Amino acid sequence: MTTSSKRLKRFFWLLLAAGFVSVGAAAFMLDRLNIPPRQLAPYLERRAEGHQPAVVELAVRLTDGLQQLDRGTRELHTPQRWNIGAGAVATKTSGAGAEVVMVSTAVELKQALAQARPGQAITLMPGHYRIDGDGSLDIRQAGTAEAPIVVRAERPATVFIELNAGEGFKVDAPYWSFENLNIEGVCQTQEFCQHAFHVAGRGAHFTARNNLIVNFNAHFKINGEDGNFPDYGVIEGNTLTNTAPRRTISPVTPIDLVAASHWRIARNQISDFIKADGDRISYGAFVKGGGSDNRIEQNIVLCEYLLQGNRGAQVGLSLGGGGTGPQYCRDRRCITEQDGGVVQSNLIASCSDDGIYLNRAAASKILHNTLVDTGGITVRFPESSADVEGNLVDSVVRSRDEGLLRTAETQVTGPISLYLGRHPVRALFKAPGALDFSWKDKPAVRENMSEQIPDLCQGMRTGTVSYGAFEDFAACTRPQAR
């Protein structure tokens, strides 16, 4: 072999070794950073802004490629029928109805709300009720634990309330319940339709069940007022969605809870909360502002359901949200945004950003959730601490900025797999892109579970249970008694 041939061969092996080292270093770095491709992509795009066109074009190609690797081929979703969310079977609040007050016009509804007494069931006759103007449907008369005041339709899909106003029901009194209503924001400018319900100050023990609520920035807004906090609320079995991206700089979060404690947010279907203006960051639901012991469980959260292909950062569920100004915090400081919060047995899918995000959320429990096509679970800042257990996550679980994370028996997809376009967790399901989460392959199970775990689709489970939110997703399509 000639000297030149030897040199060429040596150079070839050096190049090959350098390539292996580079690939190995890149893999090591990706594994250490633990950042999914969908979150690296927008960072690269922002870094390229203002540079030469060639640099911007390269960044766009890279971000598109990263999104494709992480999110895969996007399928057009079609409307699905699940027993999570508002249903055709009427719900009824116990303790109310000793006196039925029938109303048939918006004027009569306002009068009934102003004159309400404990135990009354304000029942709307079938039809359309339009509320115009800047004022809300103010509620200041208190119910009691034994005799709550109810606003209801006797049958779902018979009463349609159209709100052309900044907010609809302003609840500043305890023990009110709303059930079986269809409520739609119809403001000509989306910015103006802020809330269907604003629960404030004295509005403790509020309940909303089996309502279909459409086209608001924050369908439910909950916050303290004048030193009072509306604790012990329930938002259960509702469908909250939008028919178009929200053109607003205001927060876009269907359940926006600040400084209240002991709420249960359960069995709701929350979808299509796209923020098209401002920072373009939106959440399906968050609890923040220094509250404690709030539970978010057995919900279906679809960041992009029938609205797909929009830009922005959509986060599924959050303890802590994006933080709270001290003046709005329960303790006027917000040393922590949440204490003792529980996020359990939820299905969260089709989110451009984190599926579950913790921001200064202490003593949190993130249990048996299923996350598909999201940025995974993030626990952020030293004030955050979380037990993450029994989840099925089609992405990463990570700590940021010194968040304290304890992970036990949670199935995840590592970052290297995501950058290679591999999704072993997603592959467990028959057609997750079409929102069919029936098992394709036999799921891994946790054995000898002594405590009972809520199942997204049916009852409780114990003993040998699957990772994630449910045993059989087909059970979510079967009607269940309310």
Notable traits:
482 residues, alpha/beta, 12-stranded parallel β-sheet, 10-stranded parallel β-sheet, 5 helices, 34% strand, globular
Please tell me what the overall shape is: globular
Largest sheet, described in full?
12 strands, parallel
Strand content: 25-35%
CA radius of gyration: 25 Å
The poorly predicted ranges are 4-28
Explain this structure to me?
The protein is α/β, with parallel strands linked by helices. Helix content is 16%, strand content 34%. It contains five helices and 39 strands. The strands form six sheets. Strands 1-2-5-8-11-14-17-21-25-29-32-35 form a twelve-stranded parallel beta sheet, with helices on one face. Strands 3-6-9-12-15-18-22-26-30-33 form a ten-stranded parallel beta sheet, with no helix packed on it. Strand 1 (99-103), helix 4 and strand 2 (120-124) form a beta-alpha-beta unit. Helix 2 (37-48) runs antiparallel to helix 3 (53-71). The longest helix is centred in the first third of the chain and has 31 residues, at 3-33.
Q: How is the topology of this model organized?
A:
Elements: H1 3-33, H2 37-48, H3 53-71, E1 99-103, H4 106-114, E2 120-124, E3 127-132, E4 137-139, E5 149-153, E6 159-164, E7 167-171, E8 176-179, E9 182-185, E10 195-200, E11 207-209, E12 212-214, E13 220-223, E14 234-236, E15 239-241, E16 255-258, E17 264-266, E18 269-271, E19 281-288, E20 291-292, E21 295-297, E22 300-302, E23 313-319, E24 338-339, E25 342-344, E26 347-349, E27 356-359, E28 361-362, E29 364-367, E30 370-372, E31 377-380, E32 385-389, E33 392-393, E34 397-400, E35 404-408, H5 415-419, E36 429-431, E37 436-439, E38 445-454, E39 460-466
Parallel strand pairs: 1-2, 2-5, 3-6, 4-7, 5-8, 6-9, 7-10, 8-11, 9-12, 10-13, 11-14, 12-15, 13-16, 14-17, 15-18, 16-19, 17-21, 18-22, 19-23, 20-24, 21-25, 22-26, 23-27, 24-28, 25-29, 26-30, 27-31, 29-32, 30-33, 31-34, 32-35
Antiparallel strand pairs: 36-37, 38-39
